[in-house]
Amino acid sequence: MNAITIAVDYGAITANVATLRAHAPTAAVMAVVKADAYGHGLVEAGRAARSGGAAWLGVAQPLEALELRAAGDTDRVLTWLYGSEVPAAALIAADIDVSVGSHEVLEAVATAAHAHANGPRARVHIAVDTGLGREGVTLADLPALLDAAREAQRSRNVHVVGMWSHFAWADQPGHPTIDLQAAAFRAALALAEDAGLALEVRHLANSAATLTRPDLHFDMVRPGIAVYGLPPVADPAGENFGLTPAMSVTSTLALVKRVGAGQGVSYGHEYVTDRATILGLVTAGYADGVFRGAGGRAHVGIGGERYVIAGRVCMDQFVVDLGPDATASPGDTVTLIGVGGPTAREWADAVGTIDYEVVCRFGGLRAKESV
Ligand SMILES: Cc1ncc(COP(=O)(O)O)c(C=O)c1O
User: Fold this and answer.
1) What is the mean pLDDT of the segment spanning 168-190?
2) What amino acid positions are annotated as catalytic residues?
3) Is 32 near ligand 1, meaning CB less than 6 Å away?
4) Which helix (H) or strand (E) holds 337?
5) CB of 206 closer than 6 A to ligand 1?
6) What pLDDT sits at residue 27?
């Protein structure tokens, strides 16, 4: 018996990408499948996203881009997170678009492309830091990088095809940094044009901006979390923007037993029964991705009812107080996330994090679960 079962509805991912395309009808969609597709499975989620119409897939790590190719993906893929150690030759040979946000990375890419002057050109997207303070070249340093990129395009088998940036606060619609970053991005695009670079694809919008700022879609949107059905902003219409959560997490009731009032539950007895009741033992713990801090805060679903986790989460198990009249039996399904239980967002709120971390964490255990 598995301690925990992580199921991914790939049909939901396909449908979500189709829905995101409808939210951004004038732009291409790059489905962000970094970090093993936010725990949903890189290759399978990538395939599902392609079926929904994702013209592009995006990953942070170069090895994930190469893994997509090894699995047979042949369409456009962009990778963006590395220093000068970037495996540029392998990426170019695999026809993968690469992000460049520094002279060091440009040099590594141009050197690899030039070494195979008769091979494919390196397709480069310039990464601009418009205010996130993370990856990318600052606007102040952009002109020099554009000059170097144009020179590489002229003489070193490089083709500058894109420019991109990333938002800091898009999940807070109306936050003043959104328009400031958009203005900085437009200024960066103008500099690229001044440098004589004809860009094929300009991209800025993550999930939040895809759903709330149609004016900032440019040529392509780059949603991640929304692909998995978890929009980072509330839908004013209360319809989750037409998206369906793809991941569900379930476990099993291993034991059901009657106890008296005053029974301490789990290590440290942080929960004490206030009446005679029935306890249920669930075979999932922090080794399975259940946050240790979830005791007394997060709920699970059993038989259509919600129960708070009673006492501390242990390494491989936790307990719920089913109440004196419970009819649950050993073997019953316990829904940690999914229909009949909480959403990933509710889990995140309970333990003080974001649903991104919840799905990455449970998803990281999919390999173990499938053994
Ligand atoms: C560069 C880049 N683009 C797009 C995304 C997708 O963001 P989100 O999952 O908020 O849509 C990410 C993820 O953080 C990212 O790092």
Assistant:
1) 98
2) 34, 267
3) yes
4) strand 333-337
5) yes
6) 98
Domains annotated on the chain, with CATH: 10-237 (3.20.20.10), 247-369 (2.40.37.10)
Residues 135 and 81: their CA atoms lie apart, in Å, by: 8
Unique residue bearing structure tokens 């020179």? 151
With beta carbons less than 8 A apart as the criterion, state whether 289 and 8 touch.
no
**Spacing, Cα 32 to ligand 1 middle (Å):** 7
The three-state (H, E, C) secondary structure of 43-107, written as one string: HHHHHHHHHCCCCEEEECCHHHHHHHHHCCCCCEEEECCCCCCCCHHHHHHCCCEEEECCHHHHH
Whose tokens are 């107080």? That residue is: 321
Mean pLDDT within 228-241: 96
CA of 80, closest atom in ligand 1: 1
How far, CA to CA in Å, does 4 sit from each of 102, 230, 280, 308?
43, 21, 16, 18
Cα–ligand 1 centroid distance for 15 (angstroms) = 19
pLDDT, one tens digit per residue, over 104-148 is: 999 999 999 999 888 899 999 999 999 999 999 999 999 999 999
Give me the pLDDT at residue 367, please.
Answer: 55
Q: pTM (2 decimals)? A: 0.96
pLDDT of residue 2: 67
Strands 137-138 and 5-8: unpaired
Nearest CA to ligand 1 atom 1: 166
**DSSP assignments along 189-240, one per residue:** HHHHHHTT---SEEEEE-HHHHHH-GGG-TTEE--SGGGGT--SS--TTSSG
Task: Examine the pLDDT at 362 and tell me if it is beyond 50.
Answer: yes
Q: State residue 163 phi and psi, 5-degree precision.
A: -145, 140
Q: How far is CA 15 from CA 143, 283, 325, in A?
A: 41, 32, 41
> To which residue do tokens 């002279």 refer?
103
Q: At what angle do helices 344-351 and 355-363 cross, to 10 degrees?
A: 110
Q: Is the pLDDT of residue 224 over 90?
A: yes
Nearest atom, ligand 1, residue 206 CA: 11
Q: How many angstroms does the Cα of residue 370 sit away from the middle of ligand 1?
A: 28
Closest CA to 218 of 236, 197, 204: 204
For the stretch 62-111, pLDDT in tens is 999 999 999 999 999 999 999 999 999 999 999 999 999 999 999 999 99
Residue 55 near residue 35 (C-beta atoms within 8 A): no
